[in-house]
Amino acid sequence: MAQYYGIADLAEARAYIANDVLRSRLIEISEALLALPSGNALSVMGSPDDLKLRSMP
User: What is the value of pTM for the model shown?
Assistant: First the structure.
């Protein structure tokens, strides 16, 4: 399912970032995760959601 909803390519990533709502949500959640003292996505989000923060080849 993650592959279905994942960003497919650079063009789709650019379109995602160009969308004001999606960009602001991405920034908000990224800043919140970076501000956590643990820095451990698994402890915060659980599995498999922590894997969504990883780049896939």
Answer: 0.69
